[in-house]
Amino acid sequence: MTITTQLQAAKPLDDALRARAGKVIPSGMYGHMNVTLLPSGYPQFYVAGKGTRLWDTDGNEYLDFMCSFGPMISGHANSVVDDAAIAQQKDGDALGGPTPRMVELAELMVDTVEHADWAMFAKNGTDATSLAVTIARAATGRKKLLKGGTAYHGANAWFNPNPLGSTPEDRANIINFEFNDLASLESAAAEADGDVAAIILSPFRHDAPVSTDQFDVDPAFAQGVRALADRLGAVLIMDEVRTGFRLHTGGAWEPLGIHPDLTAFSKAMANGYAISSVVGTDALREAAGDIFATGSFWYAGVSMAAAIANIGLLKATDTPAQMAHVGQLLRDGLRSQAESHGFTIFQSGPPVMPFLRFEDDANFATAALFTDAAVRRGVLLHPAHNWFLSTAHTEKDVAWALDRTEDAFAETRATLG
Ligand code: PMP
C-alpha cells in the first residue's frame, strides 16, 4: 500500500503553551477541551479559523469536522454573522439593560421554533437546560426529573456525569430511563410516584462518549413520551443544545408532529458567539416569568445580533438538507475505505452529526489510532464523540478529507497488522 498524504510537522509552539498552561490552568486544560484525553497528534491551541479550516499555533492547517463541538454551523469567521456582531459591538455589548436585539431575537425564535410562544436567553447550554428544569419545577411544584441514563444535559450538579464535587442530594431527584424504551420510562415514572416535574431528553440518542452507537428516536417512543408527560401533568423538555438547527430548523421532532413544552438551544444559535435559549409554550409563560433567572452577561447585545444574523442565514436555505447531503458523502466514502482496509465500522446518527465506531473497539483504541492518523494529515475528527457538519462544508472538502482518511485507514491497518 502507498501512503501519499503529507504528515504535519512537530508542534513546538503548542508544546510550549501546554507547558505554560500546566502551571496556571488546572490539568493544563479542563473539560472537553483537554486534548491530553485524545491521541498525541491533536493540537491543544488554535490561532485562527475560516470556513471549514482551522490553524493551530504552529501554522498547521486542519479541515474541521468538529465545528468547535457544534457551534460553528455557518463556518468559522462567517462574515455575515461577524459583521452583525461587530456592528453591535461598536454600539456596545453589555449596556444598562438589554438592547432592542433581545426583542428581535425573541420574535425570531418564536417565529422559527414551531412550539415556541416565548423565549429567554442565557449563555451556555447548561444555563438553558438548568433554566428549563427550574421552570418545570416552578410550574408543577414537583421535584423529580426523568432522564436518559447516560444522556448529557450539562455540567451542573444534577447532570454532570462526574460526581466529584457534588452531593448525592444534588442528584436525588433524577430517575433514569432507557432511550426508546417506553417500559423503562413508565417504570421511572412509577418510581417517581406522582412527583414528576419533567421528562428531559434529546431528540435522538447521542450519548457519546459511550461505546455504543447513536440512534434515531422511534416515533412510537416519541409519541409515548408526549402522552406520558400529558398523563402525568409533567413538562416535556427537549434538549436541542447539540442538535439545534442541524436537524430541523423548527424543532427536531417537528417532522413527527410532536411538540415539547420547553426546548433548550445553544451551540449553533450564533455561530460561535456565546448564547443559549429556552423557548416554551404559553402554558409555562407565567412560571418562566416568576422564577428568578438572570446572569450578568445574559442580556448583552453582541451575541444576540450574531444569533439574529446566523438564524437568518440558516432560514434562507434548507441548511439541514444541504449538510445532510455532504455528511452522507463523507459517510459513504469512509464506509468504502474502511471495507477496503478490512475494517468493520458502524456509522450512526444523522449524517450532519456523524459518529464512527470500529467493531470490537469498546475503549476506542482503534478509533484513536485512526483519528490520530487523520489529524496528523490535517483532518480533524474525534475518536469518541460525534462530529459536526456545517453549511460551509462542500463536496470538495469531503473529497479532500477522503484523500487523507484513505491513508489514515492504511496507517491504522499497518499498525494493527
Ligand atoms: N446538552 C447537550 C445535549 C449537550 O451536548 C451539551 C454540551 N455538549 C450541553 C447540554 C451543555 O452545554 P454547555 O456545554 O454549553 O453548557
What can you see in these coordinates?
By secondary structure, the chain is of the alpha/beta class. Helix content is 38%, strand content 14%. It contains eleven helices and 13 strands. It has helices at 12-24, 79-91, 100-112, 125-140, 182-192, 219-232, 285-290, 301-316, 319-340, 365-375, 395-416; strands at residues 46-50, 53-56, 61-64, 118-122, 144-148, 174-177, 196-201, 235-239, 262-265, 276-280, 345-348, 355-358, 379-380. The protein has a seven-stranded mixed sheet with strand order 4-10-9-8-7-5-6, with helices on both faces. Strands 1-2-3-13 form a four-stranded mixed sheet. A two-stranded antiparallel sheet has the order 11-12. The longest helix has 22 residues, at 319-340. It starts with 11 loop residues before the first helix and ends with a helix. The mean pLDDT is 96. Bound molecules: 4'-deoxy-4'-aminopyridoxal-5'-phosphate. 4'-deoxy-4'-aminopyridoxal-5'-phosphate binds next to helix 4.
Describe what is shown at a glance.
This protein is an alpha/beta fold and 417 residues long.
Structural class: alpha/beta
Give the SSE string. Answer: HEEEHHEHEEHEHEEEHHHEEHEH
Largest sheet: 7 strands, mixed
- Termini distance? 13 Å
Shape: globular
* C-alpha-based Rg, rounded: 22 Å
Number of helices: 11
- Overall helicity: 25-40%
What number is the mean pLDDT? 96
Strand order within the widest beta sheet: 4-10-9-8-7-5-6
The total of beta strands comes to: 13
Oligomer: single chain
How much beta, percentage-wise?
Answer: 5-15%
What molecules are bound to this protein? 4'-deoxy-4'-aminopyridoxal-5'-phosphate
As residue ranges, the low-confidence spans are none
